[in-house]
Amino acid sequence: MPHDDRSSLIPLLDRARSGEASARDELFARCRNYVALIAQTRVESWMHAKVDASDLVQQTLLEAFRGIEDFRGETDAEWLAWLRKILAHNTNDFIRRYRTDKRAIGRERPLATTNPDQSRAAGIEPADPGKTPSQILADHERDIQIADAIARLADDHREVILLRNMQRLPFDEIARRMDRTRPAVQMLWMRAIRKLEELLNQPRS
Amino acid sequence: MTTPPPDRGHEPDEDAGSPTGFDEHEQRLFEMLDEYVERGQIDGSKVESPENFPELPRLLDCLSSLESLAEIADPHPPAPPEFGQTLIWDATDGDDSPARHGSSTFNLEDRPFGPYRLIEQIGSGGMGVVYKAEHLSLRSVVALKMIRSRQLATAEEITRFYREARAAAGVSHPNIVAVHDVGEYDGHHYLSMDYVEGQDLASLLRNGPLEPDRAAEILMQVARAADYLHRQGVVHRDLKPSNILLDTDGRPRVTDFGLAKVFDTDDSQTRTGTIIGTPAYMSPEQASGKASAVSPLSDVYSLGAILYEMLTGQPPFRYDNPLDTLLSVIESEPTPPSRLRPGIPADLERICLTCLEKDPERRYPSAGALADDLQRVIADQPITLPATSWWHRLARWIRREPELVSRCLGIIPAATIIQVNYHLSNDINIVDHTLVMLALLLWLLVAVTLQKLQNRLSAPRLIPAAWCIADATFFTLSVAFGARQPIELLMIGYPALIVASGLWFQVRLVWLMTAVSLVGFDVLLLTCLAPNTPRQYPWMYAAALIAIGAIVAHQVRRIRILSDLFERRSG
């Protein structure tokens, strides 16, 4: 379903809260890349390694989906803060489990098998709206656009942006992780930024 | 645009080695993008030929969007955790903790702030706090203005702030405080500008007015700077003495241009202290909220207001409450500076009043034309302004002294009618006629005197009350001396006076006027009311006067409430 990238999430959110299934689906489809990007960045900057965070994203969206009636906020900012809060809880679990599992290889279990009733997100109130400057200042629609554009990049372009811009690593470290030379990752990064800018300024067909 | 975390270990110099495959153009672009990521800004002077990088602004925009997203994603760049160590992730506080983005702008002295070290606070205002700061790597001293976060509450305001700051960074003029850098650090948006040692014009004017020559000299330079800005497409919108800095050589330098536009939801919010809500330097089109009508000519008005204050020591209109100031800015004419302070050259006064014209069309066509005329004044040459037409002078006088004009409009026709009637009829006593004319003449003289007193720099607060008492007294005297029976039709004067007193917008003046009118009526009642008047009529008339007074007073009170509301909202 085509949508206007710059529009607010709120009408969609209202429809989703009133129980309209297609609105819920669309709402989560629009937030998925955003949650995924933040999840990836957080987990990888903690783990210092490339991590598949898709389970974490899945779990977070699932909890948000189930708990949508509990969300009482009125703005995009509150909604995204609520998603990030759920994500933060899950990230904690995820990292703990991931480390444990690394030490005991073979005991890895998918996240989804954890008891959903223990979901900690269910009772969480929305974050106090816009009380800290960074919350006030953020351009949430732009953030979602960027996350969508990053998701549409080629794999190596996405990775270099994640490492350089999101995790803020120096090029030496990026070169080591991507197993390329430093000039090569620098060139890759610049192309990735150019490509990203292209995607951002050329609206989705 | 945060500082790089300390564990980055990245030296920009290491990038100097040309990565294979980069041509020179790409290498330059890479360096700029990398610098932007590292420092959150680009030194504009290092971009030799911006036209070679048409995509640069869009790329930087993209990078800054990424940066804001990275901040959300990674609010606590963690130290590398040991394997198996207990995680110290505080899940309840995973997002945007206030400690990191502290919004307090206090106690920041002698602290690193992004690429700067704050030295000392040198000022503060509604928009933010200004620090003297040193650029860490360039060692240059700048004035760093931190914008209060509440001033930039929405993403749109931030976008506007950056757009204006970029426009400001593009200008360079000896009378303009250059903007070097704009950015965000630790949740604070900031601007860095030339650090100007000296004082601002507002504090200089606290010691009293300036010599006319010096005033003309300062304003000419400021007008040149404004003209330069206008030609760059920037309207200052908030020219006022506190935005004009005087360096140690006495050279004026304009600051904060364009920023008013960013914060113009209500311009008075950018003001602090004594002039909250009193738009003393604002053009009528700004004061009446016509944002679309604001043009370079609005700045010309503000320049005139500044010249006025330099010459006389006070802005053209300044009252204790915003209603009076607003009404004056929109309706009244300033007192000519030479009446407030003798010795002001006539040409300079004409220049000043031309800038202060209500109709932008009547002002100087540009700040440049104003500067040219000021230069002529300084060089003792004739100025270009055409002589003011008598009609325009009359219009100015009506706006400037409406109290006197309205008395004249009442007294002179009345005297003419009485005089004509005296000649037409032959049964009027010459003594009675002379007494009436004397009373009217005296009324006119008192009006002129009161107007003169009112024009003085420190007008006594009792002047409006004196107007009320004089009007009622002389009206009563004229009727008492001159009128022939029956006088009832002339009694319309009292209600008219009470209604007119409402124009002062002071409840107590309305009641005062009602009271003096009752006294006057009483005098007439005792001296010359027709003996056959039914007894209840005077009582009914007096009650009607009180009722009119009550109605007018009530209306004035309502307007006051609205005015207070305005004052509270803008304060």
Please provide a written account of the structure.
The complex is a heterodimer of chains A (205) and B (571). Chain A has 205 residues and is an all-alpha fold. Chain A has helices at residues 10-17, 21-47, 54-66, 76-103, 133-137, 140-151, 155-166, 171-178, 182-201. In chain A, α2 (21-47) packs antiparallel against α3 and α2 packs across α6. The longest helix of chain A is centred in the middle third of the chain and has 28 residues, at 76-103. The model of chain A is unreliable at 1-6 and 104-138 (pLDDT under 50). Chain B has 571 residues and is α+β, with helices and mostly antiparallel strands. Chain B has four domains: 1-77, no CATH class; 111-194, Phosphorylase Kinase, domain 1, CATH 3.30.200.20; 202-396, Transferase(Phosphotransferase), domain 1 (Orthogonal Bundle), CATH 1.10.510; 403-570, no CATH class. Chain B has helices at residues 24-39, 56-73, 155-169, 201-205, 212-231, 259-262, 284-287, 296-312, 322-331, 337-340, 346-355, 367-378, 390-400, 402-424, 430-455, 463-482, 493-501, 507-528, 536-570; strands at residues 112-113, 116-124, 128-135, 141-147, 179-185, 188-194, 198-200, 244-247, 252-254. A six-stranded antiparallel β-sheet of chain B has the order 1-2-3-4-6-5, with helices on one face. Chain B has a three-stranded antiparallel β-sheet with strand order 7-8-9. Chain B starts with 23 loop residues before the first helix and ends with a helix. The chains are: A mainly alpha (205), B alpha+beta (571). At the A-B interface, α2, α4, α5, α6 and α7 of A face α1, α2 and α3 of B.
Summarize the main sheet of chain A.
none
Annotation field: number of helices of chain B: 19
Overall structural class of chain A, as computed from helix and strand content, comes to mainly alpha
One letter per element, helices H and strands E, the order of chain A comes to HHHHHHHHH
Reading off the top of the CATH hierarchy, the class of the largest domain in chain A is best stated as: Mainly Alpha
Share of β-strand residues of chain B: 5-15%
Distance between the termini of chain B: 33 Å
Output the CATH homologous superfamily of the largest domain in chain A.
RNA polymerase sigma factor, region 2, helix turn helix motif
Query: How many beta strands in the DSSP annotation of chain B?
Result: 9
Mean pLDDT of chain A, to the nearest integer, reads 73
CATH architectural arrangement of the largest domain in chain B: Orthogonal Bundle
Largest interface: A-B, 56 and 62 residues
Q: Roughly what is the average pLDDT of chain B, rounded to an integer?
A: 78
Name the quaternary structure. Answer: heterodimer
Number of helices of chain A: 9
- Helical fraction of chain B equals 40-55%
